[in-house]
Write a structure and sequence with these properties.
The structure is a single chain. The protein is mostly helical and 184 residues long. 66% of the residues lie in helices and 0% in strands. The chain contains nine helices and no strands. Helix 5 packs parallel to helix 8.
Amino acid sequence: MAAPSPRVAEIVAVAREVLETEGVAALTMRRVGEVLGIRAPSLYKHLAGKTQLETRLVDAALVEFGDTLHGVVDRADPAGVVTDLLAAYRRFALERPNLYRLATAASMPRGELTPGVEAWAGEPFYRATGEPYVAQALWAAAHGAVVLELDGRYLPGSDLDRTWSALAAAFGGQGRPGGAVTRG
């Protein structure tokens, strides 16, 4: 994906703000235009439509997510890398729930993304585990756990820090003092 023009970058930034503050249902060309103070048809001079706008949001999310997770793995002690990776994954998703869902819950527009960005964003799971199928299993478990948390689907009173700590332990993580993989 080519670097966006300053105007496209502004449109994408506003779209992200709408997505995070108002939810995915509010992410329309009309709403983005309203926030920018222009009519929605003017947006089509810069983007082909909502699908392209969402693709740009997903691409940006994968870059941001990848930067975050690579940074964690780069700095982590090998004994605690899985724990640290899961904590960063959880924090990223909980702080940006609508962006997280957009980037992970729908079909992936792979052909429209920056080449290699999806694999690069997921690479920290491989770096933390050293085995591709274990890395995929760890990502799947983390994704499922975070979606359940975002949806409020755990039983009332569940200690989710302990749940995440158990997930880290299941994949070889050592946990933190007190056994918690926390959001903060």
